[in-house]
UniProtKB/TrEMBL annotation:
Beta-lactamase-related domain: residues covered: 10-350
Family: Belongs to the peptidase S12 family.
Organism: Penicillium antarcticum
Signal peptide: none
Protein name: Beta-lactamase-related domain-containing protein
Pfam families referenced in this protein's UniProt entry, alphabetically: Beta-lactamase
Classification via InterPro entries: AmpC-like, Beta-lactam-related, Beta-lactam/transpept-like
Highest rank taxon of the organism: Eukaryota
Length: 366
């Protein structure tokens, strides 16, 4: 029987970190073999709504693993009798994005346009940087955003270096929607969330608003104002053009179901797809926010690192008012999910907490 690491000592550490970094609230779930432990700390919204494991948060860039998994489902369809005329014959990770959405997808030059594959886009090696401030959040549609990429400069040659790029995940999202005739969130709900019984996972703020009548609580995002020594509530994120890179709203309990799927390499993702999703595609050495020793690797919507001889498969997310972390150690069948309600500082707190838990798990000498 596993013993919860979310003990009194851990509770004190969380409370100290939340106070130090001015984070109103945090939820955490830890998977240890067949057991799952979860807790909520602090406030989901001021002045008095507590965080619980059921509280939902914007999960930001952890969405990308689901976008990559969605592509894997279409690749499997392309080699089965379920293939449709919208999915190109022989569709695979190495299919080019321009072959699926030729009228919409173009980059700065023809060489990159004709060669960037789904694999390149999902592993951040396209050479296209993170032009996040190039579009107005609420007024740019996904299709219009993709059509505008041709006017933004590339920063590196294709496959030459790691460059994090939310808009490449947007391009993949648009391609998925073109092939399926469904919105990406609808596709994920039908093909991933429902099979995993992720019943409190959503794609849009409107869906969460409707779920509030069933008792679902959305954590409000905040920023700490040092001048007034008070929190300022952030606007609800609404950025359709990068939805495939960061739209999901969920809770730590639902995310443990996703981590268990990955850890056990079980359905609805095929065994071949599981292997593909966590295969490193590009290596890099510099990343200020990565506490693990270099080199680092990026797979398809997942970061790959090692710590004290153990492989970690993980990702973080940060959006206006929110921060999240998910990771698992496949060899130990151990994982965790954390979600908080500030930008940046939530992730600082989560880094301190997961390093504490990893050191405890791996019996790192103090």
């Amino acid at each position: 029987m596993s013993v919860s690491s979310l003990n009194d000592e851990f509770d004190r550490l969380v409370q100290d970190l939340l106070q130090t970094w001015h984070v109103p609230g945090l939820a955490i779930a830890v998977i240890d073999g067949a057991s799952t432990f979860s807790k909520g700390y602090g406030l989901a919204s001021l002045p008095d709504v507590p965080v619980t494991p059921e509280t939902v948060f914007f999960t930001a860039s952890t969405t990308q693993s689901f976008t990559a998994a969605s592509v894997s489902l279409l690749i499997d369809e392309a080699v089965s009798t379920e293939a449709t005329e919208k999915i190109p014959p022989g569709f695979s990770w190495t299919s080019t994005i321009s072959s699926v959405i030729p009228e919409d997808f173009a980059l700065e030059n023809e060489y990159a346009t004709s060669r960037v594959t789904f694999e390149d886009a999902l592993s951040n090696r396209s050479g296209f940087p993170d032009h996040l401030k190039s579009f107005k959040p609420k007024t740019t549609s996904l299709q219009d955003g993709i059509r505008s990429l041709r006017h933004l400069p590339l920063a590196a040659e294709l496959r030459s270096q790691y460059l994090y790029s939310s808009y490449m995940f947007s391009a993949v999202s648009h391609a998925i929607e073109s092939m399926t005739g469904q919105g990406l969130g609808e596709f994920m709900r039908e093909r991933i969330w429902s099979p995993l019984n992720m019943t409190n996972t959503y794609w849009t703020p409107q869906e969460v608003k409707e779920a509030a009548s069933r008792g679902i609580t959305l954590a409000h995002g905040y920023a700490w104002n040092a001048s007034t020594e008070a929190y300022t509530e952030e606007a609800i994120p609404n950025f359709p053009v990068v939805s495939g890179a960061g739209a999901i709203i969920s809770n730590v309990l639902d995310y443990t179901k996703w981590l268990r799927c990955m850890m056990t390499q079980s359905g609805p993702i095929s065994r071949a797809a599981h292997s593909a999703l966590i295969e490193p595609h590009i290596y890099y050495t510099e990343q200020a926010t990565n506490p693990f020793p270099a080199p680092h690797a990026y797979a398809l919507g997942w970061r790959i690192d090692s710590y004290r001889g153990r492989r970690l498969i993980w990702h973080t997310g940060s959006w206006t008012g929110y921060g999240s972390t998910m990771m698992y150690l496949p060899d130990l069948q151990w994982g965790l999910v954390m979600m908080g309600n500030t930008t940046g500082t939530s992730n600082y707190v989560q880094t301190a907490l997961y390093m504490h838990l990893l050191d405890e798990l791996l019996e790192t000498p103090s």
